[in-house]
Amino acid sequence: DRIWPAEQKHTDAEMVYDGTLLACTEMLLGGVTSFNDMYFFPDASVRAALTAGMRLTAGIVAIEFPNSYSSDAADGLHKGLATRDAYNGEALINFSLAPHAPYTVSDATFKRIVTLAEQIDLPIHIHIHETLDEIKQSLTQYNLRPLARLQNLGLLGPNLIAVHAVHLEQNEIDILAKLGCHIAHCPASNLKLASGIAPIAQMLDAGLNVGIGTDGAASNNKLDMFDEMRLTALLAKGTSGRADVLPAHQALQMSPLNAAKAIGLQNRLGSLVAGKAADMIAVDLATIQTAPCYDVISHLVYAASREQVTHVWVNGELRVENGRLSKLDPTELFAKARYWQKKIQAKT
């Protein structure tokens, strides 16, 4: 009732470019080198990521109803595939197929997406089982829970990134694990929207690959992976009643390596191994807030903050040096943010 009408009124390629550039700046300063995105005008997001020098997996968005970007799902896929063709060969840019959610995408579109994923070897990135209302609507319309519907349509497999996955039954967790699917866990967003708490302990026990994300600023406000790592570990312990669930080293792995595996780039990203891309960050733990330090990994998950990131390299190129951006001008970004703030306020 609020976000989609506001998007219809305000969103265009210029806004998406400026907003993505602002997000890239926040992420870089917080130690994020790569992000997986689903939004309208993916061409603008790609251009912003390249301007910032960040790595991006851009979603080719499919949503049935008309919006400021596309007239329907087919139009969104057509435009997104053209964007993929235009940026073919860019070292920092990859793509995924991004049907928005089961309640906004038809069976016919899902079937086309399955075919496209097989033809051009792309992951499928979809919001799924985020709210109880979503499940209720699916049972009413299809007499199936959303995940069962996706399974019947052939979407479940090693190329599926199930975003949120808050409300899963044990048999659904087992199916996702058996079929090699991946979870994008966004704990802060799920809490802010009162969606619930995902059963991460059960997912890990089943062998599911779980990566950590933030979701967008509209349902989080902070693109802060340090916060998300800590919250992921604490929620898993608190909901399971097991203090040994999700130890620090596992929580840390979920951010870079598990996420890289989810988007199919684990052979290039996610760990410091000879032959992989030099996407790296440096974190200063020699501060009063993190003194004394007996266990670096534990400190990174439970004590450190994004403000302690000093250096960031993407593909071997320095993007943040001593806490300062090396490629972007913060003054210009502040001006862009104020411009859009005033423009949106004037029209709201």
Task: Output the strand order for the largest sheet.
Answer: 4-5-6-7
Instruction: Outline the biggest β-sheet.
Output: 4 strands, parallel
* N-C termini distance: 13 Å
Radius of gyration from the CA trace? 20 Å
Q: What is the number of beta strands? A: 11
Mean pLDDT across every amino acid position: 96
Helix content: 40-55%
Class by helix and strand content? alpha/beta
How many H/I helices?
15
Give the low-pLDDT segments: none
Q: How much of the residues is beta strand, in percent?
A: 15-25%
SSE ordering:
HHEHEHEHEHHEHEHHEHHHEHEEEH
- Sum up the overall morphology in one term: globular
Describe this structure in words.
The protein is of the alpha/beta class. 46% of the residues lie in helices and 16% in strands. It is built from 15 helices and eleven strands. It has helices spanning 3-10, 13-29, 42-52, 73-86, 107-120, 132-142, 146-153, 170-178, 187-192, 200-206, 225-240, 248-254, 257-262, 296-302, 330-347; strands spanning 34-37, 55-62, 93-99, 124-128, 160-164, 182-185, 209-212, 280-283, 309-314, 317-321, 324-325. It has a four-stranded parallel beta sheet with strand order 4-5-6-7. Helix 2 runs parallel beside helix 3 (42-52), helix 2 (13-29) packs across helix 15 (330-347) and helix 11 packs across helix 12 (248-254).
